Amino acid sequence: MPDTAMIDADRLNHSLDELAAFGRSEGGGVRRLCAGPEDGKARDWLRARLAAEGLAVKVDPVGNMFAVAELAGPDAPVVLTGSHLDSQPSGGRYDGAYGVAAGLEALLALRKRVKAGGLAAKRNLGLVNWTNEEGARFSPSTLGSAVFAGLVATDFALSRTDGDGVTLGEALSAIGYHGADRGPPKVSSYVELHIEQGPELERTGHRIGVVEGNWGTAKFVADIRGRAAHTGPTPMAERRDALLPAAELVLFVRALSDATGGALLSSVGRLDVIPNSTNVVPAQARLFAEFRAVDPAMLAEACAKLVAKAASLSTPGVTVALEQTLDRPAGTFDPGLRDLIAQAASACGYPPLRVHTVAGHDAIPMKTVCPSAMIFVPSAGGVSHHESEFTAPEDLAAGAIVLAETLARLVSA
Amino acid sequence: MPDTAMIDADRLNHSLDELAAFGRSEGGGVRRLCAGPEDGKARDWLRARLAAEGLAVKVDPVGNMFAVAELAGPDAPVVLTGSHLDSQPSGGRYDGAYGVAAGLEALLALRKRVKAGGLAAKRNLGLVNWTNEEGARFSPSTLGSAVFAGLVATDFALSRTDGDGVTLGEALSAIGYHGADRGPPKVSSYVELHIEQGPELERTGHRIGVVEGNWGTAKFVADIRGRAAHTGPTPMAERRDALLPAAELVLFVRALSDATGGALLSSVGRLDVIPNSTNVVPAQARLFAEFRAVDPAMLAEACAKLVAKAASLSTPGVTVALEQTLDRPAGTFDPGLRDLIAQAASACGYPPLRVHTVAGHDAIPMKTVCPSAMIFVPSAGGVSHHESEFTAPEDLAAGAIVLAETLARLVSA
User: Residue ranges per domain, chain B?
Assistant: First the structure.
């Protein structure tokens, strides 16, 4: 029988309050960019919380933080849970932080239960805080977990630069999280608890979602080069305005979604204009576009059309260079682990909804390391990546309870 | 007879070299934003050059720098020349700096000539460096001259903020140019020497342009408000993307010019996207558009169409607020002064071309203070507001000679 009382919901809420103070924004959200000073404080908080519980933190070269509760001896495989403490520039207080704070509660609760003889552990239990999940300060996203999974080289990750030319390696060193440790060598499964960031759970009245799989995602950067000139005297025929093809691409990307009735998700979230001065014809524009879809054929068609459109906009005077920076195919999480989560949720009194994640998460790179899966709790209004992001305390508690029950079953299996 | 040998062309070129070092960019241009550290160094350079010649500098509250050579006693009116030392973010080395450096040479040459008895002065001769001509760091442009002319309140000017929220007043204080002096109380005429920033002089083989007048200019800021959301899970129908109307406006502004065959000049030089993160649907976009035309009716029609278009793009979910920030009518410079410049140019051996300025200049606000006019020299390829801006040394010398001859006639009149 699951011990649904073992999670300290008050302490979980208190932890989220404390984390939300690191980079708090006026609107009640957070600005806690990867490896910035606020992220450093959040990391210090986590390290201190773990130290107070007698748990040491290992930091790997890309700043991923690991702590392992040895429930079954030093050589036992590790069941890993966690998420990320970095946020979007104007993000919410739950995205990522919830999975870390609830993972910590679940870990402490289970360790207590094992010590009290209420659970026979055959595996150890680990908590992780992944570096640069958001991809907001450094690109690409889910960088720390991708390095841990061996999908991305450490040197490549450390050499990624932010908008000011600071590398991830320099930023991590500045906050003291460019470590030399390794993560746990034997991870037997990975479970990540996260807010849904979509409307399905709320709409259908479910507290718990079992994430079946992820949509396919393709990301692009268009680098458009024109020529700077005075916006006053320069004749129109002699202007080489890099912003014009950028504007065409913004509308084209949207039109591709509209043509599918919205089945294809698309966005241009970022557009850098250089030099971005009112009196200067834009010399350069960098545009970041993405598509997401369940259907691989729909995604591939959108990508091909964007490539063709970009090529058609290129002229001798204004060149458009399009590069695909991400090609994440649609995929599924481990079926056995999904079923185990569903059973755990039902046993805790929360019959789950089977959902998909449109967003990327660290659990996706982790699929290549071990069986991985995710648990979702509702997001009010489906809103995320916004200061008004909100999940009700009862939902937060329910998620932590189901996570603890899932981990209990994995640790004792 | 004009004394065409009185200008020290080598020293003028050397001055331009020295000024170009303050904020030098890799491509050979300058980044010397108004009241930034580089502008501070350029101002210090000017102050030191004047001090070495026994000329004191007065700095007014908005940072305009004035020096007066007393050729005709302390109470005589002042014939003023000069330009500005600030630049665009990726600007050239001649725009503004040339008018200051050549004005200094002309002033020193005339003072020498008066002292030697070669010229009977009835007026004094002043040099000015105006603050924030470019409008690149602070908006609007020609701010210092507009304050001097009484067109803009000092407090308004000092409270203008840059992209980081720093006010002009704070920036001037930081570099030591938030002064308490007043400019010369009696200015009898203003003559500004500048590069053309257009192709006409080069195209027609003229060294000197007499500027007849200025085109009309209208500037707008569109503030577009949507709602931030995750670019992943948020359904398309629920996105409130502020970048979409911005893209429509960029293309609409260009289409208005195309419809006139290019007679209407237009641009969107700046577009701020907020938060500008790849994973976030843009919550806000601020777009800076402008139109320029000789024909007032054409300009008015473009403005009206833009207003209507912006209104049509506004929806309950994404609002478009358009504000006109500049309405500078087409106008002419003082006819008598224009003729005087033309005669001086011809007397120096440089028969002039009559041209118009499309760009704004400090001589435009100064028209409301006293008879004002401008002298242009060629810009290679018509290029300006770009690192590759270039004017040949012979053209620079010719401009300075004609400026000195013009000032000689004004001072002795």
Answer: 9-215+330-412, 217-328
